[in-house]
Amino acid sequence: MFETILDEEERGQVGIGTLIVFIAMVLVAAIAAGVLINTAGFLQTQAEATGQESTSQVSDRLQVVSTSGEVNTVNYDEVQALNFVVALAPGSSPVDLQQTTAEFVGQGGQVTFDLDENSVSEVTTDNIIGTDSGHVLTDNSDRVNVNVDLSSQTDINYGVLSEGERLTVTFTTAAGATTTKEIRVPTTITSEDTSVRL
Question: What is the per-residue DSSP string for 153-175?
Answer without folding.
Answer: TTTT---PEETT-EEEEEEE-TT
